[in-house]
Amino acid sequence: MNFNEILFEKKGRIATLTLNRPEIRNAISSLDIIEEIETVCQIVNNDMSINVMIVTAKDPAFSAGGNVKDMVAKKGMFGGTPARLMENYRKNIQRIPLAVHEVAVPTIAAVNGPAIGAGCDLALMCDMRIASERSKFGETFLSVGLIPGDGGAYFLPRAVGMARACEMTFTGEVIDAQKASDIGLVNYMVAHDQLMNAALELAGKIAAKPPEALRMAKRLLYAGQTTSLRQLLDQSAACQALCHHTDDHMEALSAMFEKRDPEFKGR
């Protein structure tokens, strides 16, 4: 499938989505990029041969967020009455957090440069983040008289805790990769020229796991944030029962006893 705003490739069990508008610093500026991100997420969900997805961007930026020129001109998704603007957010930009957060496989943001506003939130929508030393992160909405309209108030506290999220949101401060690593916003920081190698290394470790159990494990981790312990244990028991009857479970046991690497088939 051909895309205009992004690049998409699959190698083995690893899929990579790359924002491909470097001339506008990968701003999320049109319905086209929203639809293409949404489409890739659906492709990944429907392809059981994919075990992990990397989200990255063409240099020099990860994403500058919303298109401020369109905001000034009050055009595109930023035009219309307050009621129309509310619907524009719901029917446009907010499709991205729903799509990325609901990707069935683990997701890794390989943040190659500044991730500002909605760009910061896009990185936060992923399950894990690896930062280039050139990256910066800013929840900068209040600095332009706005609030996080694309789910930042949901994702940021879960990544760094409420106090840190409040500080980043209320001050609009842009932090560097080292501080992002120190506060737990990213899993770790690497040299810029090693970013994709690091992302692919982590993705490879994940991709080697049994596909069905991997997707169940992700669902359980997120279910645990919103359900009671008893409810999660019931859900875990049901998933575990299914796992016990997969060929991949038996392959893992056989490989362990035979002292070899397992070959999972996703069944």
Provide a descriptive summary of the structure in words.
By secondary structure, the chain is of the alpha/beta class. The chain has two domains: 6-207, 2-enoyl-CoA Hydratase, Chain A, domain 1, CATH 3.90.226.10; 211-258. 47% of the residues lie in helices and 15% in strands. It contains twelve helices and nine strands. The chain has a six-stranded mixed sheet, with helices on both faces. Helix 5 (118-125) crosses helix 6 and helix 6 crosses helix 7. The radius of gyration is 19 Å and the shape is globular. The protein starts with 5 loop residues before the first strand and ends in a 9-residue tail after the last helix.
Structure at a glance:
Helices cover 47% and strands 15% of the residues. It is built from 12 helices and 9 strands. The chain has helices spanning 31-46, 68-73, 82-91, 95-101, 118-125, 152-160, 162-171, 177-182, 195-207, 211-223, 229-244, 247-258, and strands at 6-11, 14-19, 52-57, 107-111, 114-116, 128-132, 136-138, 174-176, 188-190.
Provide the descriptors you would attach to this structure in a database record:
single chain, six-stranded mixed β-sheet, 2-enoyl-CoA Hydratase, Chain A, domain 1, 47% helix, alpha/beta
